[in-house]
Amino acid sequence: MKTFIGIDLGSTTTKAIVIDGDQTVLGRGITNSRSNYGIAAEVAKQEALLDGRFFLLRREVRKLPALKRRVNAFSSNFEQDFRLQQYLEQLGDLEQDGFMFGVKLSLNKRFLGVTSNFELFQSIDKCSRGCLDEKGEWIENGVFYRRTFTLGRLKWYASRGIIRDRTIVTSEIGNSDQNR
Question: Model-level pTM greater than 0.70?
Answer without folding.
Answer: no
